[in-house]
Each structure stands twice: as structure tokens, then as C-alpha cells.
Design a protein that fits this description.
Blueprint lengths: L1 H32 L24 E7 L4 E6 L1 H8 L14 E11 L9 E14 L10 E2 L2 E3 L6 E3 L3
Antiparallel strand pairs: 1-2, 2-3, 3-4, 4-5, 4-6, 6-7
């Protein structure tokens, strides 16, 4: 009888334990989501904070391959250089020029009338480049991190 009573008590606790487990998982995800992405830094390299505000930069180019959609964004310094004729005028991009290239995995649209229409799906990574002739003299003045979104959301590595 004592064993039956213990099992009955434990059975009553299962929903509470399950609820607590779900609550802990939700709170952990909220804490991770609240992490400031701009605190990331490539080991021995650029801090991601150098590219703060890239989400508002102007689009320079859009492309699609079988494996990715991509958009290239440029900061105002680089946009001004483009407007002045760089690189076609033979002048280099000025220090302070920055660009971002963001990639998404293609997926079929569920809203388009044509079932073969592909749209950007999950973001896979973002490449960043910054021009600073003094800091990056070894690489022609350019350097930058890659932010891999999949499978680990905050892995940084050098661009390829």
C-alpha cells in the first residue's frame, strides 16, 4: 500500500515538474536571446561592434545561387566612394569603408502563386569587411569576421 501511495504522489508531481522544466528552458532561451550580438569578437581579430548598425546600410547587390540568396550592404563611407566612381576611377576605397554580405538558404514560397518560386529562408551566415590601411596593412587594408548562423548561432570565423 505504501508503494501505491508513493506512486500516486509522484504522479501528481509530474505536471509540476514538467512545467518547471519548460519554464527553465524558456528563461534560458530568453537570456541567450538577450545577449548583445555586438559583444562578439573574432579571437585576435575584429570586434563585431565595428559593424554596429549594418542592418540599416544601403543595398549594393543582390544575388541567388542554387544554395543561397545573398545581399551585399555598404556603409555610408563606401556608398559615397561608389558615387565618386570608386573603383572604376582607379582610386581605392577609403579607410572606414565597410560592407556586409548576408546569406539565406533558399526555400519554396508558401504564398506565391507559382509553386516553384524560391524566397530567402533561414539566414545561414554574414560576412563583414572593413577597410583600415593601418590596422590591416598585411592584407591590403581589408579584414573582417564571418558570423555563422547555422548550426551554432554565435560562431565567428575569418571570411573565406
Amino acid at each position: 500500500m505504501a508503494r501505491v501511495a508513493t506512486v500516486q504522489k509522484l504522479t501528481k508531481c509530474v505536471p509540476a515538474i514538467a512545467f518547471l522544466g519548460v519554464l527553465v528552458a524558456i528563461l534560458a532561451n530568453i537570456a541567450l536571446a538577450g545577449q548583445d550580438k555586438y559583444t562578439l569578437q573574432v579571437p585576435g581579430g575584429l570586434p563585431f561592434s565595428d559593424f554596429k548598425g549594418y542592418e540599416d546600410w544601403q543595398t549594393v547587390s543582390v544575388s541567388k545561387t542554387e544554395h543561397a540568396f545573398a545581399v551585399i550592404l555598404a556603409n555610408p563611407v563606401m556608398i559615397d566612394a561608389y558615387r565618386a566612381g570608386v573603383p572604376g576611377n582607379g582610386k581605392p576605397f577609403p579607410d572606414g569603408s565597410k560592407m556586409a554580405k548576408i546569406h539565406w538558404k533558399p526555400e519554396k514560397s508558401v504564398e506565391a502563386p507559382d509553386p516553384t518560386t524560391m524566397v530567402p529562408g533561414t539566414q545561414t551566415n554574414a560576412d563583414f569587411m572593413e577597410k583600415d590601411s593601418k590596422r590591416f596593412a598585411d592584407s591590403g587594408g581589408w579584414d573582417g569576421p564571418r558570423l555563422n548562423m547555422m548550426p551554432h548561432p554565435i560562431h565567428l570565423g575569418r571570411p573565406t
